[in-house]
Structure formats: structure tokens, C-alpha cells
Design a protein that fits this description.
The complex is a heterodimer. Chain A contains ten helices and seven strands. By secondary structure, chain A is an alpha/beta fold. Chain A has a single domain, classed as Rossmann fold (3-Layer(aba) Sandwich), CATH 3.40.50. Chain B is α/β, with parallel strands linked by helices. In chain B, helix 7 links the parallel strand 5 (128-130) and strand 6 (152-156). Classes of the chains: A alpha/beta, B alpha/beta.
Chain lengths: 269, 307
């Protein structure tokens, strides 16, 4: 796919996100906006998936460990054809199937129930380990937040992945540099994240998480190193795409208001 | 009970290579043969209980039948959210095996006691909770648990539990095991108090009292049919457990009867709502808390007006 096409898809996903969060009045739109290019790259360029056969045993697996950004996953899944885009209108409405955090098999394409940070990587290691044992070729991708790397369970799982040489496992860290109540660097001083992963036996690369050329070229050459799990630190901007929301902590909580939607949409043409 | 578990698991793995045993660095002398014979089905996860549960969930998603093993507090309380979200919410058939029920690890102190786990594990939707009463129940319940399509918690003692059941006793998940018949009163127990309760019922015979003994190894789901029958047939129901009564089997049965307006005369005998900070062996602590044979007999006689 041409970069322009991927950018068009991303713009459409962001338009959907604005509508989903405006109608539901739910938080975390900025967390969703920062991972749009990552998800679009995975679902349209990298992963071996078939929306008409979402349970295909050979499919690549994807786990959204930063479950609070489920709206972005739903919007991308709908765009990819897993289900009708009209389902997005029900986001977080009373009685809806899709809401703030994803639930396994609630709609086609959602592989795991997440929402509490630090769970997704461990689940992914269990899947990737099984794939090795079964001599299956599929890969397992897991998308985490940078703040999530403060959870001890992440590093437990990192040890396991490197011990069993899970080079069919790819972790992506959405480094948008904010967590719920402050800068990621300020709270636990998670600087030198790359060397932390490397010291746990992973091969780590860091790229611009909004640049399709970088995302596609890096993720099309997996594993980064045979015999090691891969981790991609994707440098992103929280709230990417809507200048008013970019790099602002309050947009972890606020939701766009309907009267402002037209104004925001202008940035997505 | 541990040996019975390993014996049965060894048998099961021989016929099903999808069965896995994950341990949190425990099992010295217990799993030695198992890990030598089935190195591909055994993983020592190290001291990483949280990721052990997550990895078990991922393996179950890919069709594996995973048993995770540790001492009860480490494989329940420490990883409660992983059990809740990764296993129960996703309704995956992972078996959680905890050893050291009740005051098995008496001298190790409150960090190692397991006197709240029934309440905590039973509170989780989709979870089946099993507390076998002797090694025979362990073998039969573990075997049946493999085919369960839901999460399952199995709490075990350690090594000294007496055999009460006959080898051919019929033991099935969800069905209370009537170990001894009797019509004057019923003693319902779970887990490692079975042999003690059985001996108490024998001792009551000398007082002319014929007590039924039920091993209610399946704490969740409760055997409602049996509880209904008991409410109609016997005048007194005693629920005996080496666990805090207010969050254990006793409270679950009381809740059941209360909701049915059952006019049953019921008494919970277990541990108080407190940490046990007195150190001592299991036998000593049982005596201190009234869970030895003599104390139980006295308490039962007092409750039925025969003291």
C-alpha cells in the first residue's frame, strides 16, 4: 500500500475516534490517537490476518495491552473489515458490545481482555511459546504503553520471552511520554528504556511511531535478531493529529465536544 | 495429597501431550520424576507468579491444558488480578493448584497460611473451586478437572492427610461425597479436615449419635440438591473447615440456606477472622482453635444439648 493510502486510512480512523469519544463522552482519546499509525501499519501492512476468517489458527495474533486505547483498535478493525463500521456508533453506549477496554471475542478480531496494565505481554508470551511448540509460523504482537513498563509483571514476562528465545514475539511500546498523572520520565524515571529491554535479552529498535516508512520497513524485517524477542519503541505524540490535544496530559481524561468536532476534523483532511 | 496430584498428573500427561505443569519454583522432591520424564511439559517459571498466570492464559488460548502450581498465597492472593482478568474473565481452562491449605504450614506463619483462599477464589465468576478431602479425592478430581472448560482452583494439603475414601468411591465434581451415613446430624467438611470429622463421627457413635459425614470437596458450584436434602432430613448441620468461617464453606452454605428461607439449624466451626500469629504445628494450632477431634466432639454435643 502506498504511504498516502495508509495516511488516508489513519485520517479516517481519527475521524471515527473523534465521533466515538464525542458521542460517548469517554476518556483516553489521546492514548488512542498516539497509536493510530502503529495499528494501521500492523493491520494493513504487516500482520497476516483475514477479517473474513478471524479465528484462522495461522493468523498473526495481536494483543492490545494498553487496553484503555481500545477505541483505536475498534476503529482500525472496522476499517480493515472485521465488522461493520456502524458498530463504532455504539462505542460505550448502554448495552454496547464495545466499550472503553477490549474484551476477548466481544467483536471479531479482539484477542484478549485487557484494561489493567502489565497483563498483555505475559499472555502474549504464552501464545508465542505455544506457537513455537506447535511449530506454527504465526507471530504474536503486543502493544504496550511506556508507563506500563513500570509494572513488574512486564519484566517477569520479558525474562520468560528471552529465556525461551521467543523470536516470534514482537512487543511495541507506544512511547508517548505521558502516563495518567504526569510525564513518564518524571514519575519513575523510565529513561534508557532501550537499554533496559536489551539487558533483558531483547533486540530493541526505536523509531518514529507516526512515520509509515519507518514503521513498515522496521516491522517487515522480523525478528530483529534470530533467537531473541523483538521490541520496538515507537516514539509518538499523545493526542497526535489534533493540535489542541497533542502532548497534553488533560486529554487523557477529556473527550471532544460535539460542537468542536468540525473544527478538529479540519486537521484530518 | 501432593503425591496423589503428581501421580495422577503423570498418568494424564502420558496420554495427552497438551497438558503442562508450570510451577513457581516449588516442587522439590515432588516433581523430580515428572520433570525428568516429561521435560517438554514442565516449566519452572521461577519466582514470577504474575507472568506465570498470564502465560498460562496465553497457552490455554492456544489449546493447552495448563496446571499452575505453588504454595496457596503465592498462586492466589499475589496474583489475584491476573487470575481474575486473564483466566476468569476470559473463561480459560487453566487449573490453579495451591498447596498448603489451612494451617498446613503452621510454623511458617501467617504469610504461608491459607485460611482466606476459599472466599477469595469462590468470589470469582466462572471459577470452579475444589478442596479434596483425601488423596483419593485428589486423584479423581484432578482427573475430571482436565476436561473442564472453565477455570478451576484446586487447594491441596501436603503429605500427611489420611485416606478416608475407598479406592472405588464415586467422586465427581459438583457432587458432595457422603463418606458416612447418619440421620441424627450432618457434618459437612471440606479439604484436610475430612479424616478428623470422620473420626469425630465414629466417636459420637459411642454417645448413641449417628452422624452423617459429607466431604464437600466442590465448594463452587455447591451441591444444592444435597444441601436441600440435608435441610429436610437432619436436625443439625455442622460445617467444619480449617479456614476462616466467615469467608469459607460455612458462609457459602449459610448464604445458600438463608436465600431459600431454609429452617435449618446450622453451625459453622472454623477459624476466626484474624491472622494466626501463634506459631506451631498444624496439630497444635488445631487444638488451640478447637479443630481437633476432642474439641469438635465437645462442641457438637454442646450444640445439640447433650453436653
Amino acid at each position: 500500500m502506498k504511504t498516502q493510502e495508509l495516511e488516508d486510512i489513519s485520517a479516517e480512523v481519527r475521524r471515527q475516534l473523534l465521533l466515538m469519544h464525542a458521542t460517548s463522552n469517554e476518556s483516553h482519546i489521546a492514548s488512542s490517537l498516539s497509536i493510530v499509525e502503529i495499528l494501521v501499519t500492523l493491520y494493513f501492512e504487516i500482520m497476516n490476518v483475514d477479517p473474513t476468517n478471524p479465528q484462522n489458527p495461522e493468523r498473526d495474533r495481536f494483543i492490545l495491552s494498553k487496553g484503555h486505547a481500545a477505541s483505536a483498535l475498534y476503529a482500525v478493525l472496522a476499517e480493515r473489515g472485521y465488522f461493520d463500521k456502524s458498530v463504532l456508533n455504539s462505542f460505550a453506549q448502554d448495552g454496547a458490545k464495545i466499550s472503553v477496554h477490549p474484551e476477548r471475542n466481544s467483536v471479531p478480531g479482539v484477542e484478549a481482555s485487557t484494561g489493567s496494565l502489565g497483563h498483555g505481554l505475559a499472555i502474549a508470551t504464552g501464545i508465542a511459546f505455544s506457537a513455537k511448540k506447535d511449530e506454527k509460523k504465526f507471530k504474536t504482537f503486543v502493544l504496550m504503553s511506556d508507563g506500563e513498563c513500570e509494572e513488574g509483571s512486564v519484566w517477569e514476562a520479558a525474562i520468560f520471552a528471552s529465556r525461551f528465545k521467543l523470536d516470534n514475539l514482537v512487543a511495541i511500546v507506544d512511547k508517548n511520554k505521558w502516563q495518567a498523572y504526569d510525564r513518564t520520565d518524571t514519575i519513575q524515571n523510565l529513561r534508557l528504556l532501550q537499554s533496559k529491554w536489551e539487558s533483558f535479552g531483547w533486540n530493541c529498535k526505536e523509531i518514529n511511531g507516526h512515520d509509515f516508512d519507518e514503521l513498515c520497513s522496521t516491522l517487515s524485517d522480523l525478528p530483529f535478531e534470530f533467537g531473541k524477542p523483538s521490541v520496538l519503541i515507537a516514539d509518538t505524540i499523545k493526542g497526535k493529529g489534533i493540535p489542541e490535544m497533542e502532548d497534553k496530559m488533560e486529554w487523557h481524561y477529556k473527550s471532544p465536544k460535539m460542537p468542536d468536532i468540525e473544527k478538529y476534523m479540519e486537521f484530518l483532511r | 495429597m501432593r503425591k496423589a496430584f503428581v501421580k495422577k498428573l503423570t498418568e494424564l500427561v502420558s496420554n495427552d501431550e497438551k497438558i503442562y505443569l508450570l510451577t513457581g519454583d516449588l516442587g522439590f522432591s515432588v516433581f523430580d520424576d515428572f520433570r525428568q520424564t516429561f521435560p517438554n511439559n514442565f516449566i519452572n517459571m521461577g519466582l514470577s507468579e504474575a507472568s506465570m498466570i498470564g502465560a498460562a492464559a496465553g497457552m490455554a488460548m492456544e489449546g493447552r491444558r495448563v496446571f499452575v502450581y505453588s504454595i496457596i498465597p503465592f498462586v492466589t492472593f499475589r496474583v489475584l488480578e491476573q487470575i481474575r482478568n486473564d483466566i476468569c474473565l476470559q473463561n480459560l481452562p487453566v487449573k490453579i493448584i495451591g498447596v498448603g491449605e489451612g494451617l498446613t504450614y503452621g510454623t511458617s506463619g501467617p504469610t504461608h497460611h491459607a485460611i482466606e483462599d476459599i472466599g477469595i477464589m469462590s468470589s470469582l465468576p466462572n471459577m470452579v473451586v475444589l478442596s479434596p478431602g483425601d488423596p483419593i479425592e485428589v486423584e479423581k478430581l484432578v482427573e475430571e478437572s482436565v476436561s473442564l472448560n472453565s477455570p478451576c482452583y484446586i487447594r491441596l494439603g501436603k503429605s500427611s492427610e489420611a485416606v478416608v475414601n475407598l479406592p472405588d468411591s464415586e467422586i465427581r465434581i459438583g457432587v458432595g461425597n457422603i463418606v458416612k451415613c447418619g440421620e441424627d446430624l450432618a457434618i459437612i467438611t471440606t479439604g484436610n479436615m475430612l479424616s478428623t470429622c470422620f473420626n469425630v463421627s465414629k466417636s459420637l457413635e459411642s454417645e448413641g449419635i449417628n452422624a452423617m459425614v459429607v466431604s464437600l470437596h466442590t465448594i463452587k458450584p455447591l451441591d444444592e440438591q444435597l444441601l436441600n436434602a440435608l435441610a429436610q432430613k437432619v436436625k443439625h448441620v455442622f460445617v467444619v473447615e480449617e479456614h476462616i468461617s466467615s469467608c469459607g464453606l460455612g458462609s457459602r452454605i449459610a448464604y445458600y440456606y438463608a436465600n431459600r428461607n431454609s429452617n435449618v439449624n446450622m453451625k459453622c466451626i472454623g477459624l476466626p477472622d484474624s491472622f494466626i500469629s501463634t506459631y506451631g504445628k498444624q496439630e497444635f494450632l488445631r487444638m488451640k482453635y478447637g479443630l481437633d477431634e476432642d474439641s469438635l466432639k465437645r462442641e457438637i454435643l454442646r450444640c445439640i444439648g447433650r453436653a
